[in-house]
Design brief:
By secondary structure, the chain is an alpha+beta fold. The protein has three domains: about 15-80 and about 165-310, Alpha-Beta Plaits; about 85-160, no CATH class; about 320-380, no CATH class. The chain is about 35% helix and about 10% strand. The protein has helices at about 35-45, 85-95, 105-115, 125-130, 155, 175-180, 210, 235, 245, 260-275, 320-345, 350-360, 370-380, and strands spanning about 20-25, 75-80, 105, 120-125, 160-170, 185-190, 195, 220, 225, 255, 280-285, 300-305. The strands form five sheets. The chain has a four-stranded mixed β-sheet with strand order 10-1-12-11. A hairpin with a 6-residue loop joins strand 8 (about 220) and strand 9. Helix 12 (about 350-360) packs antiparallel against helix 13 (about 370-380).
């Protein structure tokens, strides 16, 4: 069986001849939550280290969200353990399908080690490793299912509280709501098909902030101007990777020509499906899986949970295109219809008082549609 490994950094060229779009592919299955990308982003873009202390009690996610001073944000999502019934069903399925037994640490041993009273035993991950348990039910570097007697590490930890991590960033949307809303042209699309904000053109109106369906754009508290990820435009001009992708130790964040990234991501999803992770899918990769989120995202993701679990919407488009554009077109159409009615009235024989009524309507003394309706009623009678 052909093995499709996780893409190496050298597989995707930084600048490919004829590549019209560059982007990010973030594989959340290999993100370890180290926040190297956050630090590299702040260092390269000279962003303040606000939120660097653990002021948010009960969470390691101290930066909390994307904002004017945080252009990369590693989201920590705590997955709570399933119910006893769900845990028993998973254990039964494992016993039927794999034949292996999960070594567990007795509750008494946990209590002795911690000085307290343990309520239940947990999987002994050290014993799993020492006994040669196979990752995802297959020998390392090979595909296929588990052999008799082997144990899935994924199944072993499925009944534990666990974390999932996701490095979030500006999506550089194909249909960018922030660009639609900006009245000054501060938000522009570059030759790399990325969306950047020109701070010297921004007037601080803030229209772009609610126009982003992902909550990416934010206004700086000091000068009021908007701020967001530039996908390291200055580095791209010199043929360099963005700082976050360069710093990522697991290659969770990959950068390169967009079409190449989609191909790599699609192979990665297929590989995960082969290994039993049927829930793996691409979020925002345009037509890769038959969906269009904001017309396709320049920074797309591989998820194993619903997008809402990562703080992203299942469906997203520019609020401008969803609401303002249809309303504007409807109003424009109504205006054309009214103008046509007025023109028809003036071109046809009519009494002077009818003509005066139309002039009053145009002047705002009554609405044009009302005036047209009155004229039609008079002529019908």
């Amino acid at each position: 069986m052909t093995t499709v490994t996780h893409a190496a950094p050298t597989e995707i060229s930084v600048r490919a001849p004829g590549a019209s779009r560059m982007g990010f592919f973030t594989d959340t299955t290999v993100c370890i939550g180290c926040k190297s990308c956050e630090v590299a982003c702040k260092q390269w873009n000279d962003l303040p280290a606000d939120g660097s202390s653990f002021r948010r009690s009960g969470s390691y996610d101290h930066t909390a969200e994307l904002k004017a001073t945080t252009w990369r944000h590693v989201r920590f999502v705590e997955m709570l353990a399933p119910s006893d019934l769900q845990r028993q069903e998973a254990t039964d399925a494992l016993a039927r399908g794999k034949g292996g037994q999960i070594p567990r640490i007795p509750a008494t041993a946990l209590a002795d080690a911690g000085g307290g009273v343990a309520q239940e035993e947990i999987p002994d991950l050290v014993a799993l490793a020492e006994n040669g348990a196979k990752r995802d039910g297959a020998p390392r570097g090979q595909g296929g299912g588990a052999h008799p007697g082997e144990v899935d590490v994924a199944a072993a930890v499925a009944d534990m509280d666990r974390w999932i991590f996701m490095s979030d960033v500006c999506k550089h949307c194909t249909n960018a709501g922030c660009m639609d809303a900006c009245p000054t042209g501060a938000l522009v699309r570059t030759e790399f098909e990325t969306v950047i904000l020109q701070s010297d053109v921004c007037n601080g109106c803030g229209y772009c902030v609610p126009s982003c369906p992902f909550g990416v754009v934010d206004r700086d508290h000091d000068d009021g101007r908007a701020s967001k990820c530039t996908l390291c435009y200055d580095r791209l001009e010199d043929g360099l990777e963005p700082a976050c992708a360069k710093a990522c130790p697991t290659d969770s964040i990959q950068f390169g020509p967009y079409d190449e990234l989609v191909a790599v991501a699609s192979r990665r999803v297929a590989r995960l499906h082969e290994k039993g992770m049927d829930g793996a899918y691409l979020y925002g990769a345009g037509d890769a899986e038959g969906e269009q989120i904001a017309g396709g995202l320049g920074a797309f993701f591989l998820f194993t949970e619903p997008p809402e679990r990562y703080g992203l919407p299942a469906h997203a488009d520019s609020p401008i295109q969803q609401n303002v554009v249809p309303a504007t077109l409807a109003a424009f159409g109504a205006g054309l219809a009214a103008a046509a009615g007025v023109a028809a009235a003036f071109l046809s024989p009519t009494h002077g008082r009818d003509r005066g009524l139309l002039l009053a309507a145009v002047a705002g003394l009554s609405t044009v549609p009302d005036a047209v309706r009155i004229l039609r009623h008079r002529r019908a009678s």
